[in-house]
Amino acid sequence: MSGMGKSAKPASVRALLYSARFRGVLYQVLVVGGVVALGWYLVHNTLANLAARGIATGLGFLGQESGFDIGEGMIPYSAADTYARALLVGVLNTLKVAVLGIILASLIGLTVGVARLSRNWLIARLATLYVEGVRNVPLLLQLFVWYGIVTALPVPRQAIDVGLGVFLSNRGLKLPAPVWHESYWPAMVVLALAFVGLFVLRRWAVDRMNRTGHPFPWLSTGLAAMVLLPLLTLTVTGAPVEWSVPELRGFNFQGGVDLSPEFAALLAGLSVYTASFIAEIVRSGILAVPHGQTEAALSLGLSRAKTLRLVVLPQALRVIVPPLTSQYLNLLKNSSLAVAIGYPDLVSVANTAINQTGQAVEGVALTMAVYLVVSLALSLLMNWYNSKVALVTR
Amino acid sequence: MIKPEDDIHAATAAADVEEPSSAVVPAPALWKPLGWAKSNLFDSVPNTILTLLALFLLWETVPPLIGWGLLHATWSVADGTAGACRDSAGACWALMGEKNRLMLFGVYPYDQHWRPLLATCIVIAMLATSAPRRFWRRELGYAWLAAIVVVAWLMWGGVLGLSYVETGLWGGLPLTLGLALLGIVLAFPLSIVLALGRRSNLPAIKAICTGYIELVRGVPLVSVLFMASVMFPLFLPEGVSIDKLLRALVGITLFTAAYLAEAVRGGLQAIPRGQEEAADALGLPYWRKMRLIVLPQALRLVIPPIVNQFISCFKDTSLVTIVGLYDLLAASKAALADPEWRPYFVEGYIIAAVIYWVFCFSMSRYSQWLERQLATGHRR
Amino acid sequence: MKSLKAFTVAAVLAVAASPAYAGPTFDAVKAKGFVQCGVNLGLYGFSAPDDKGNWSGLDVDACRAVAAAMFGDSTKVKYSPLSAQQRLPALQSGEIDLLARNTTWTLSRDTANGLNFTVVNYYDGQGFMVPTKLGVKSAKELNGATVCVLPGTTTEQNLADWFRANKLTYKPVVIEKNEELAAAFIAGRCDVYTSDASQLAAIRANEMPNPADYVILPELISKEPLGVAVRHGDDQWMDVVRWSIYAMIAAEEKGVTMGNVDQMAASSPDPEVKRLLGVTAGNGKALGLDEAWAKAIIKQVGNYGESFERNVGQGSKLKIARGQNALYSHGGLMYSPPFK
User: Fold this and answer.
1) What is the pLDDT of residue A23?
2) CB under 8 Å, gap of 24 or more: what pairs does A7-14 form?
3) Under 8 Å CB-to-CB from A181, ≥6 apart: which residues?
4) Count of domains in chain A?
5) Does A59 reside within a domain?
6) What's the fold here for domain B103-378?
7) Most buried of A53, A255, B87, C167, CB within 10 angstroms?
8) Rounded mean pLDDT of chain B?
9) A chain contacts of residue C3, beta-carbon cutoff 8 Å
C-alpha cells in the first residue's frame, strides 16, 4: 500500500483507498467474485464429472414412466405414471403428515404447556416428565420405537375389532367411510358455506363483544352449524347414505379408509416430539404475561378457564408465535425422516427416482427446492398471523 | 428451538407462582402432608377429577412397567444366547451385557476397544472440566488442543505403537460425540462470519450471507447429508476423494453454521448501538471494533444458545445412520440385527435412549444454570 | 471477511486437488494401494461382516480377486457397505472403484446411469417368500397382498411390472435396509417378501427365527444377472475387473484350484493353463499387471466353483445348488472367453 502511495497522485489514491465507499465496493466485488468463482468451480467439476462418466443430465426424466409403485398417496398413482407424478405423490404425502402433525403438535403442546403451570402438583410433574423425557432423545430413535410399537400389533386375521367397523392391526387402522355419491354435492356446498360462516360469526361476535361487552359462544355455535347444517341438507335432499365398511378379504381388509402404520408412526413421532418443544414455548409465553393480568381478570370474577382463554393466552400469543413458527418449520423438515421407516414422503420417493435414473444432482436439487418453497410459504403465513396478533403500539 | 432465556424467566416465575399456594395453608405439623395434598391436588372439583385421572393413569402404567423392567427382568445370561430371556415375562437387560461393546463402539476392531473407550472418557472429562466458569482460561484452550491430539491419536493410531484404524470402522458413542463436537467447533467461526455478514451494510455481502442462512435453514438435514455423502464427490475434480466421515462432518458443519449464525446474530443485536458508535468515534477499524468491542460482549450472551445448538447437533448426528455411518443409534440397531436378540428391540432402544437422554438432559440443565450465571452481570 | 473464507475454501480445494491422481481409475487404485469396493450392507453369502469386521461372500470374493490381480494381495481391499439406494451414486461419484453388490445388469444402468457392467458373477431370478401358514402355493394367488420390497432395486420395478401384467393389485412397503425390511416382514407388516431368490434363501436361513415357517414360492418372475460394475471412463480398469473374474471361471473350467495351483503352474502341459497362470508371459503385460496376477487370484481366493460352494453352496448355510451358475459344460451359464 505504501508503494502505491508513491505514485503520481499520492493524495487522491490514498484518499480513494481509505474511503469507506471504495472499500465497501472493493470488498463486495472480492466476495461476489470469490463466491462466483467457487460456484463456477463446483459446477464445472460436476459437469465434467457427469460428462466423463456418461451420466444423463437434465429434467427430461420427469416425463418418463416411473415403473415403481408407491404404498399410499392422496392422488391416484400407478407404476405406469411419470416420475413427475410420483414426486407429486411424495410432496402431497409430506404435506399431509406435516399439516396434521402441526395441528396435533399444537394441541398437545398447548395442553402440556398449560399443564406444566397447573396448580395441580401431580399434573404439573407429569407434564414436566413428558417434556424432559421426550425432547432429550433423538427423534429418529423415537420414530423407530413408534414403528416397532405399531408393527407389534396383531396381524389382520387377528385384528382388534374396536366395533362399528373399526379394526386395528399391524396393517394400520381401518375405518368405515361413506361412499361418495353424486347427490352429496349440495351438502358439500353447505359445509363450505358453514365454514365461511364460522369466520363471519366470529367477526360479528367480536364486534358485539366490543360494543356491548356481551360474549357470544361463536366457536361452539359455528362448529355445531358445520356439523348439523350439512346433515340437515342430506336428509332434505334424501341422498342415500352408504358406508364402505372394512372387511377381511384375502390378505387384507378391503374397503373403508385406512391409516397406514408408517403414517401413524411418523405422525405420532413428529407430533409428540415437536409438542414437547411447543409446550415449553407456550409455558414461557404464559409466564411472560404479567401476573397482574391474571389477578385483575380473577378479581373481575372471570373463571380460571376464561381468564386463561380470554386474557392470558391472547397476550401470550405475541411471545409464542415467532418461536412457534420455527418449530413448525422443524416439524416440516423432520418429516423427511420418513425415509427411515418407509413412509413414502418426498425424500423417500426422490431417493428411489434418483436410484433408477442415476440423476442424483437433479433429484436432490428438486427435493431441496420443494422444501424451500414450502418452508417459505409456511413462514410467510406465520408472519402474517404474527403481525395480526402482535401488539399494536400507538 | 426454545429460546433459553425464556427458561430462566420461566424458572424464576414458576417459583413465584407455586410459592403462594403452599404458603396459604397454615396447617399444624401433623396435617402438613394432608393439607398440602388438599391445597395442591384436591382444591376444586375439576382439579380433583384431574388428580384422580392422573392417579389412575399412573396406577395402570407404573406397576406393570416396574414388573417388566425390574421384577421380572433378566439381567444376565450365562451361555451368550437369549434363551433365558425367552422364558421370562420381563425385560431382557442381558442384551446390555452381551452387546454393549457393539452398541458403544460399532465395528471398531474388537481387541482395540480400549482406545475409543479412553478417547470417550477424555472427551467427557474435558467437557466436565470446561463447565465451570472459573476454568474458562487460556490454559483450557491448550488443554483442549492437547486432548484433541491425544483423542485423534487414540482413534486413528498408526503412530507410536498403535495400529492404524481407518475412519470407516469408527462407530458408536465416540462417533456421535466427535461429530457433534467437531460440528459445533468448526461451525462456530463460520457462523460468526455469516452473522456479521448478515448485519453488514454492504448489500452484496448481506445478500449472500442471508441467502446462505435461509437456504440451509429451509432444507432438511437429511437432504444436506445425502448431498454431502453422494454429491460431494461429484463437485470435486476427477480423482479427488474425501473420506466418508469427513463428508458427513462437512455436511453437519455447514448445516449447524446456519443455525448458529442466527444465535450469534441474536447476541449481536443485544449489544446496545452506542457501543459500536463509541468504537466508531474512537476511529477503530471494522475488524478491531468487532474483535475488541462487539464480539466479546455478544459471544458471552450466546453461550447458552450455543450449548442448546450443541444438544440438537448431538441428537441430529443420529441421522448419519441414513448415509451409512455407524453412530450410536446405528450401532444399537446393528446389535439388534442379530436374529437371536431381535425380539428385544425395545430394550435396545431404551438403552440407546437413556445414553442420549443423560447427555442431552445434563447439557440442557447446564445451559440453564450457565444462563443464570451469565445473566447476573447484565442486571442493573 | 467472506472473501477470505471463499479464498480459503478455494485454496484448500486447490491444494487437495494438486496431488490428485489426474489419470483414470486404474492409476488411482495403483497409487493408493488398495481397491475401494462397494458391497452390500449385510447379505449372508454375498457380502457380510462377521463379529470381528471381516467381510466374506461371493461378491466380496470378486473384490478380493481384483485386489489380488492388482497387488498380488487379496487383502488390499476396503469395503464400503452400501444400501440399494446409495450404491449407484457411490460408484458414479467415484467414492468406490468397483461395485460388487448383487446388482442387476440392465440397459439403463449400463447407459444413462454411467456404469459399465463387466461380468455376471451370479445368475439370479426374482422370487417371493411367504409365511407357510398363509397357505399360498403360487404367486398368482397374491392378489391384494402387502409386499415388502427394497426401494431402488430392479426388484421393485419387476414387482410393479409383474402385478400389472397379471392384472393383480398389491401394496408395497419399502424400507431401505435389508434387516429392517426383514424385521417388518417377520412382524407381519407384509404378507410377502420379494427379492432375488438367492437373497430370499439367505434371509430365510439367517434372519428368520424359524426358517420352516417361511416358504419360497416356485415362480421366478424375472432374469436377474447380478454383475460387477465399474463406472464409465476407464477401459483398462474395466478390463482388469472383467478378467479377474473370468480368471476364476477359467480356473474352474481347467480344474485349477487353490490347492493345486502351484503344482499346475509348475507342471501343466495345457497351453491355456500356462497362459492363465502366467507361465507363458503376455497376458499380464497386456493388462498392465504382474504376470502372476491370475495365479495370485486362484491361490488366495480360489476358482469360481470353490468360491461359490464356500459362500452360498454346500459349504455354507444357504446350500444353494449350482443351477444356472454351473459351468456351461455342466448345463449352466458360466463361461469364460479364452485366455489368449
Assistant:
1) 79
2) none
3) A239, A240, A242
4) 2
5) no
6) MetI-like fold (1.10.3720)
7) A53
8) 79
9) 27, 30-31, 33-34
Please give the interface size between A and B, counted as residue pairs whose CB atoms are below 8 Å apart: 175
Domain-located, residue A208 = no
Question: Which is more confident, C290 or B84?
Answer: C290
Q: Measure CA C64 to chain center.
A: 12
All structural domains of chain C = 21-124+225-330 (3.40.190.10), 126-222 (3.40.190.10)
Q: Tell me how far apart the 2 most distant CA atoms of chain A are, in Å.
A: 98
Distance to chain B for A327, nearest Cα, Å: 6
CATH number for the domain that contains residue A283: 1.10.3720.10
* Domain shared by A384 and A277, yes or no: yes
Read off the pLDDT of residues B302-360 as tens digits, 9 standing for 90 and up.
877 888 888 888 888 888 887 778 888 888 877 776 667 777 778 888 888 999 999 89
The answer to whether residues A270 and A379 belong to one domain is yes
Task: Give the chains touching C; criterion: ≥3 Cβ pairs < 8 Å.
Answer: A, B
* Domain membership flag for residue A372: yes
Q: What is the pLDDT of residue C289?
A: 92
Q: Is the pLDDT of residue A78 over 80?
A: yes
CB distance C305 to C297 below 8 Å:
no
Question: What is this structure's pTM?
Answer: 0.81
Which of A6, A30, A52 is where one domain is finished? Answer: A52
Q: Phi and psi (nearest 5°) for A208? A: -65, -40
Cα of C143 to nearest chain B Cα, Å: 30
With beta carbons under 8 A apart, name residues in chain B contacting A318. Answer: none
State which residues form the domain around A318: 83-136+266-389
Give how far Cα B53 sits from Cα of A128, A275, B18, B46, C65, Å.
17, 21, 22, 11, 68
Domain boundaries, chain B: 103-378
Q: What amino acid is encoded at B185 in this protein?
A: V
Chains A, C: CB contacts within 8 A come to 144
Q: Tens digits of per-residue pLDDT, C57-81?
A: 999 999 999 999 999 999 999 888 8
CB contact under 8 A, A252 and C143: no
| pLDDT value at C12 more than 50 | no
A307 touching C, CB under 8 A?
Answer: no
Nearest CA in chain C to B240: C20
Residue C135 Cα distances to A254, B369, C194, angstroms: 20, 63, 17
Instruction: Give B227's pLDDT tier (boundaries 50, 70, 90).
Output: confident
Report the candidate in B175, B110, B180, B172 with the shortest Cα–Cα distance to residue B333: B172
* Concatenated DSSP letters of B309-344: HHHHHHHHGGGGGGGT-EEHHHHHHHHHTSTTTGGG
Q: Choose the closest CB to C53 out of B107, B190, B233.
A: B107
Q: What pLDDT does B29 receive?
A: 57
Which residues numbered 85-104 in B keep a CB inside 8 Å of some CB on A? Answer: none
Residues of chain C with C-beta less than 8 angstroms from the C-beta of B333? 180
Of A32, A319, A364, the CB nearest to B231: A364
C272-304 pLDDT, tens per residue? 999 999 998 889 999 999 999 999 999 999 999
- Asked if this assembly's ipTM is beyond 0.85, the reply is no
pLDDT at A101: 94
Res C52: pLDDT: 66
Three-state DSSP class for residue C49: strand
In a domain, A103, yes or no: yes
Find the CB nearest B109 among C53, C90, C92.
C53
Which of A250, A251, A358 lies closest to C113 in CB terms? A358
Strand partners, C194: C128
Contact yes or no for A31 and C2 at CB 8 A: yes
Both A122 and A29 in a single domain?
A: no
> Smallest CA–CA separation between C124 and chain A, in Å?
20
Biggest alpha carbon–alpha carbon distance for chain C: 74
